[in-house]
Amino acid sequence: MKKTLLTLCSFIILSSISCSSDKDEETIKKDENVTQPQTQKIVLNISDAKSLVILENSPSGKNLATGTNLFKVTADGAYLPVNFTNKDGSATSTNPIVTSAKNLNSTYVLLTGDFNYPNEKGELVHYSSILVRKTDGAIYNFGTDSVLATNGLGDNSVKSDAQGNIYYRYGGKINKLSLSNPENIQRIDYLPSGQAPSAFEVDANGNCIYRYGQSKGVTSSNGTNDIRIRKANGGIYEVKIEGRDNKEFWLGNNGKFYFITYTWDNNYLPKIHQIDIDGDNISTKIVWSPSGPESFDGVGHMFLQSGQGSYIIKKEKSVVFIDTYYNWGNMDWEFYEDDNSVENIQLPRIEQGAKIVYSKEYYYIATKTDLYKVNLNTHDYTKLTTSGEFEVYTISVDANDKVQFSALRLKDGKKIFAEISKEGTLKTIDEEINRKAIVLERIN
Predict the structure, then answer these.
(1) From the CA atom positions of the chain, what is the Rg in Å?
(2) Three-class secondary structure of residue 181 per DSSP
(3) Which residues of 384-406 are buried (b: 16+ CB within 10 A; e: fewer)?
(4) Secondary structure letter of residue 121 according to DSSP
């Protein structure tokens, strides 16, 4: 379906998208000035939701009795289907079928899937992505965009700056989105045309670091990551250290970008660099390199991908990297921003496909049929469940360290939804639906 694009300059494109109106989606896409309706009769009943759950499709194709695969978990632990309702709470004749859910900020959540609901004339219209206000369930058409996979395991695929603008990757580009006026959502292509970022970060000022490819390594036949910074003023800076290859980058809790370089010919000898941005001026400096007899294999070999590699956990003054790929060496480590030091972490073996979530005090690791609770400061760990009890599909944790998860219960083969309190009490919330949760997104 065509989108209306308004050229602002040679490399920035602005598109206006709108919420449901009395026109069908095709017409909305062709009219750049269409605004949202002043009143909405249909809402999505998520105002009391703490988490959203998307269930798998049945292998037999049989629909759920609820008519929707979208559920919510409320503050009191109720596990309920989510549907379109009238503003007075009465039911409608249509149900959402959802493939992804992404918490954008404190106000909105983005849902992608198959949505059919009546406009103000009572005519059914179809949308593929909708923006939903969490406080009252108000619905806005988001066009055909969705938010692509994260840069790396555990990393948030949605970024924001100090002004509240949102950045996300879609269609081979990075979009910058303003939600200050949901009646007229503004979206621009943030990078020069032709750039195809595979990973990115954005700082508070809107400076964007991104990986746009891989080229031949400078120290051997190994490859080096091609990294650039799109400055807030639009200029482009190539991130490159003479004689060294680029590895990975991240945004520190101090608002600084960091990246790792290595030399293939010297056993992946790593260094960590900090990027300083002062208006139009950008400089880099080495803040850590290995010294002494201790081995730091995890730094030089660390990589961040959506399906494998290391999970990234951001603490107040440090960043933790938990490896799920290698089975040798010291691969789990923590980088401290206050003194630019690196410390190895000792954890049990974590397999590919592990799920990791964290709060302010703990992080939780679901690997194979084990579920660990790990102190975020000491990295001491305990098991929350008995080995072989559950195979966890999806997991989340709230600010009070209440863990919720969808899992296969091995003793009877049932797919259940459960929670564990901070004190370690396990409670099964649902076992009757018997469907795997493919998405578990905490929104409040």
Answers:
(1) 23
(2) coil
(3) bbeeebbebbbbbbbeebbbbbb
(4) T
Distance (Å, whole) CA 115 – CA 94: 8
- Helices and strands of the chain, counted as H and E runs: 2, 36
| Separation in Å, CA 340 to CA 183, 252, 258, 287 | 45, 11, 11, 6
Q: Give dist(CA 182, CA 185) in Å, integer.
A: 5
- Give the Cα separation of 76 and 49 in Å (integer): 10
Q: Which of 286, 277, 177, 178 is nearest to 235 (CA)?
A: 277
Structure tokens at 273: 């660099």
Average pLDDT over residues 205-214: 95
275, 300 contact by CB (below 8 A):
no
What pTM was estimated for this model as a whole? 0.86
Confirm if 183 and 189 have CB atoms less than 8 A apart.
Answer: no
The upper half-sphere exposure of residue 311, i.e. CA atoms within 13 Å in the direction of its Cβ, equals 18
pLDDT in tens, 379-404: 999 999 999 999 999 999 999 999 99
Confidence tier at 268 by pLDDT (50, 70, 90): confident
| pLDDT band at residue 12 using 50, 70 and 90 as cut-offs | very low
Whether the CB-CB separation of 260 and 272 falls below 8 Å is answered with: yes
